[in-house]
Write a structure and sequence with these properties.
By secondary structure, the chain is an alpha+beta fold. Helix content is 32%, strand content 21%. The chain is built from eleven helices and 14 strands. The strands form three sheets. Strands 9, 10, 11, 12, 13 and 14 form a six-stranded antiparallel sheet that branches. Strands 2-1-3-4 form a four-stranded parallel sheet, with helices on both faces. A four-stranded antiparallel sheet has the order 5-8-6-7.
Length: 346
């Protein structure tokens, strides 16, 4: 690996500051009361399970700073409002991964609330968090800036769209963690599942993105960014088994994501020649969108080296079963380094 342990240390030393207390806002399976949900794809797939929650707690504890954890956005906001007079002169840092409820913009609630009360919130601001959840908007912005993206169509009604010949994937416009995605979401233009698409739009109460399907390796590139300073990790490959990390025509559907039924690995040797181009593209995306803190650029690359950016995450998971954690540990960084990066690069 080409990164040295000193690189992260040097980056963090530029931004070290006094932190009086930090607060974690997250959703936890079997603890967080779901405010609103989808009938066939529960938003719980985005929540932390007991083991992941314990990992998060241990990472926070490793910072040797006062901290608190809320598993409800409402409980967090109520607590802040009630204690706000005592917090005004303290440097409080808030890390948010909560996104209870359904529909667009729900992950922006805590960043927007923190901005209103002038509390430091880690990661990108509320506008960019919402923007990056809109897959079609991101696709259009990247395409307009000469960044390779799959051909995409915003669909409110499939009967109003003429698809060129090819293979396609249906994605709910505002969701993550493969909510609303099964193998039925893959289709060919000569056999469009009109009824399925219409039902998906109704069930999830949002448009869908119809995107050309890319057979290839699936990759994620974790990034740490603060102002002009940026640290880009090598691409992490996601696959279904250890024998073959080529995703090909397979996808990470809702069930695989819910069950954590996928693994991480480094880019295979024969594909490493494309790593520099992938990393420079990831840098371009992060700078173009003015992302901040821990973020991640996702995509697919064919065996011939053609790559496409498919998603941008402003607040990726970093617990053990994640590409972020894999990238940090591959570069001899610890769990504590991950959390320290989140706290100081904000």
């Amino acid at each position: 690996m080409r990164y040295k342990s000193s690189e992260l240390k040097d980056l963090l030393s530029k931004y070290e500051k006094r932190i009086d207390e930090f607060i974690v806002v997250c959703n936890k399976k079997d603890t967080t009361k779901i405010i609103n949900n989808y009938s066939h794809s529960s938003i719980e797939t985005e929540f932390l399970n007991e083991d992941e929650f314990q990992q998060l707690f241990e990472m926070a504890y490793s910072q040797h700073l006062p901290f608190d954890i809320f598993t409800s956005e409402i409980d967090f906001m109520t607590n802040i409002i009630q204690n706000y007079p005592k917090l005004k002169n303290k440097n409080i840092v808030v890390y948010n991964s909560a996104q209870n409820g359904t529909g667009a913009g729900r992950k922006s609630l805590i960043p927007a609330f923190c901005n209103l009360l002038q509390l430091t919130c880690t990661g990108s601001d509320a506008y960019r968090v919402s923007l990056c959840r809109d897959k079609f908007a991101i696709n259009c912005i990247l395409k307009a800036n000469n960044i390779n993206v799959p051909l995409s169509f915003l669909c409110h009604d499939i009967n109003e769209i003429e698809l060129p010949k090819g293979k396609y994937l249906i994605k709910p416009l505002y969701e993550s963690a493969s909510i609303g995605i099964t193998n039925e979401n893959i289709f060919y233009s000569d056999n469009i599942p009109n009824k399925y698409i219409d039902e998906l739009i109704i069930k999830l109460k949002q448009p869908v993105l119809i995107q050309t399907f890319i057979d290839g390796y699936e990759f994620e590139i974790p990034i740490l960014k603060r102002n002009e300073d940026i640290l880009i990790f090598e691409p992490v490959v996601l696959s279904l088994n250890e024998e073959n990390n080529y995703m090909g025509a397979n996808i990470l559907d809702y069930k695989k994501i819910f069950d954590d039924n996928y693994i991480f690995s480094q880019m295979p040797t024969e594909m490493c020649a494309y790593n520099n181009a992938l990393e420079e593209t990831a840098r371009h995306v992060a700078e173009l969108l003015e992302l901040n803190g821990l973020c991640r650029i996702d995509g697919r690359i064919t065996k011939e080296g053609l790559f496409y950016i498919t998603d941008v995450s402003t607040n990726p998971h970093f617990i053990h079963h994640s590409s972020v954690n894999f990238a940090f540990h591959s570069n001899n960084y610890s769990d504590s380094d991950i959390f320290k990066s989140i706290l100081y690069l904000c």
